[in-house]
Write a structure and sequence with these properties.
The structure is a single chain. It contains 17 helices and 22 strands. By secondary structure, the protein is an alpha/beta fold. The strands form six sheets. An eight-stranded parallel beta sheet has the order 15-14-13-7-4-3-17-16. Strands 18-19-20-22-21 form a five-stranded antiparallel beta sheet. Strands 8-12-11 form a three-stranded antiparallel beta sheet, with no helix packed on it. The protein starts with a strand and ends with a strand. The chain binds alpha-D-glucopyranose.
Length: 573
């Protein structure tokens, strides 16, 4: 392992992975696969029932074997954990639940040794109310940090007496329910919190706030982090005049904040300027990467808004999440439409990314595949053969489903608030299922996992059970083996990582596209129906051979044979 003069741990020039013939424009974040870990739920190294950094270290060989190139860790920083780490109390300290700085250093060293990069999750929009910056800010109206957060006296209601009928400054609502403003008695002013009232929003119009936050990021870059996922990056700047958001009536009960168009509390042009300045910081650290979470308006597909954070393609984020694919129902036409719109939105110099599941949404295996492994194989193939960087969510590769949790087991503040109308996000955060044994090998048998395990981890895979790594690892027909083969195919075929993409007209239940790179071509055919379907005429020429098929033993080895129900077939020409 080389060390730069600044002491930054870097990868060996060639990385440790062997890759067919890596072209010059190879970037790990562009052509690799990124795996999201929810650290509480991945692997418990300390025996307390909560996942931690040593747990992740112990599972690095598994991740290397799966073939992923980068790990994005949801926040591991010191936090009172009201929003499970997305409320940061100290950006430069590791929460003791997860370990110490030395554990982080070890993780970076070991991961880099295996050719795996580490992406940290930075929350720019808000801090914890326990962060020293906020404690100072709220201490008095003349505190030097007062202007680091967003404070307001409020407004008068219908000319009634100020003391009794004071109102928040506007109609903005918190993502977790209620007004986004909270009156702080100490100084008799409201502060803004677009999430919990224990997550006050920072004032990014103050250059000191920006400088301080960028310094926290530098701390991790100097320690060897390879980049950041930027939490709700389009929220960081708010309308200067604090105008009311227009109403947008939709069926979103009980989450009323989803019934506003977020014209003024998000999506402000100045956020782009900040991202550009942060990109300049990142550019001083070669081969680092920024991926941003962009939520323009809840539940609406707005890939253009996500793509706008890629700037001209090389001056803002390296990658931006567009959640349209998650919102798209399970059908070939819908996926084609969504993907075409996303590709058209991404600037020419920019690069797309794709994601089906994360820690905020129900897992695709539950929501889209209804627990079916055949459907999961189809979606895995869709995700891993697109043009752009695929993001996997831990457990997706073994078909983990959302857990069924009772009210008393819920930990997520949104679930606790809205139960029984909305059960929150814990269901997609249950512990990783490593073995069929006690506690699924996530933690010791005598420990109590922080969230209950999904019971489908036990038994040996028959589709409904056996959802665990051990049972699937050696089984050639398992979902895990399919993910591994797809990732291997990406590594071996530059068409899949570097190639252009073109959709081919076909039967409405088939999704067919070609990936082409320097005269080489791969054709992907996905059958979204329960019937056999013939490939479209004219795409398969003589000499085409099947590279991968979910139905390897059923179909004839002919590339142009009809596709079996839910078959995913990748053909090379
Ligand atoms: C992002 C995170 C989510 C968190 C919220 C507030 O959307 O993904 O988990 O609750 O920001 O920080």
């Amino acid at each position: 392992m080389e060390r730069s003069p600044a002491g930054r741990r870097v990868l060996d020039a060639d990385g440790h992975r062997t890759s067919a013939d890596r072209p010059n424009d190879y970037h790990w974040w562009k052509h690799g696969v990124i795996y999201q870990i929810y650290p509480r739920s991945f692997a418990d190294g300390s025996g307390d029932g909560t996942g931690d950094l040593q747990g992740i270290v112990s599972r690095l060989p598994y991740l290397a074997d799966l073939g992923v190139d980068g790990l994005w860790l949801s926040p591991i920083f010191d936090s009172p954990m009201h929003d499970f780490g997305y409320d940061v109390r100290d950006y430069c300290a590791i929460h003791p639940l997860f370990g110490r700085l030395a554990d982080f250093d070890e993780l970076v060293d070991r991961a880099h040794g295996l050719g795996i990069r580490i992406i940290l999750d930075l929350v720019f929009n808000h801090t914890s109310a326990e962060h020293p910056w906020f404690l100072e800010s709220r201490s008095s109206k003349v505190s030097p940090k007062r202007d680091w957060y967003l404070w307001h006296t409020g407004r008068r209601f219908l000319g009634l007496p100020w003391r009794t009928c004071r109102r928040p400054p506007n109609n903005w609502r918190s993502g977790f329910g209620g007004s986004a403003w909270r009156l702080d008695e100490r100084t008799d002013e409201y502060y803004l919190h677009l999430f919990l009232d224990s997550q006050p929003d920072l004032n990014w119009r103050n250059p000191d706030t920006e400088a301080a936050m960028f310094d926290q990021a530098r701390f991790w870059l100097d320690r060897g982090a390879d980049g950041f996922r930027l939490d709700v990056i389009n929220y960081i700047v708010k309308d200067l005049r604090l105008r009311n958001n227009p109403y947008h009536p939709r069926l979103t009960f009980p989450r009323l904040h989803d019934q506003q168009l977020h014209l003024y509390d998000r999506n402000q042009p100045e956020a782009h300027e900040i991202v550009r300045r942060f990109r300049a910081v990142m550019d001083g650290h070669p081969e680092t990467m920024l991926v941003g979470e962009v939520y323009p308006n809840e539940g609406c597909m707005e890939p253009e808004a996500s793509a706008s954070y890629l700037g001209s393609g090389n001056d803002e984020l390296h990658l931006a999440f567009d959640f349209s694919l998650m919102e798209t129902p399970f059908n070939a036409r819908g996926y084609r439409k969504t993907l075409e719109r996303w590709y058209a939105a991404v600037p020419r110099e920019g690069w797309p990314s794709h994601v089906l599941s994360n820690h905020d949404k129900p897992r695709a295996m539950t929501r889209r595949c209804r627990g079916s492994f055949a459907r999961a194989r189809l979606l895995a193939t869709l995700l891993l053969t697109q043009r752009g960087t695929p993001f996997l969510y831990y457990g997706e590769e073994i078909g983990m489903r959302d857990g069924r949790l009772r009210r008393h087991a819920l930990r997520d503040p949104t679930g606790r608030k809205y139960w029984p109308f909305f059960s929150g996000r814990d269901r997609s955060r249950t512990p990783m299922q490593w073995t069929p044994g006690p506690n699924a090998g996530f933690c010791r048998a005598d420990a109590k996992p922080w969230l209950p395990l999904n019971t489908d981890h036990s038994g040996r895979g028959d589709g409904r059970r056996g959802v665990n790594v051990e049972s699937q690892r050696e089984a050639p027909g398992s979902l895990l083996s399919w993910y591994r083969r797809l990732i291997e195919a990406r590594r071996a075929h530059l068409e899949l990582t570097h190639g252009s993409i073109e959709f081919v007209d076909s039967h409405r239940k088939l999704l067919v596209y070609t990936r082409e790179y320097e005269e080489r071509r791969v054709i992907v055919m996905l059958n979204f129906s329960r019937r056999r379907r013939s490939p479209p005429d004219g795409v398969l020429v003589a000499g085409a051979r099947i590279l991968l098929s979910t139905h390897g033993s059923l179909t004839e080895p002919r590339a142009d044979a009809p596709l079996e129900p839910y078959e995913a077939r990748v053909v090379s020409i």
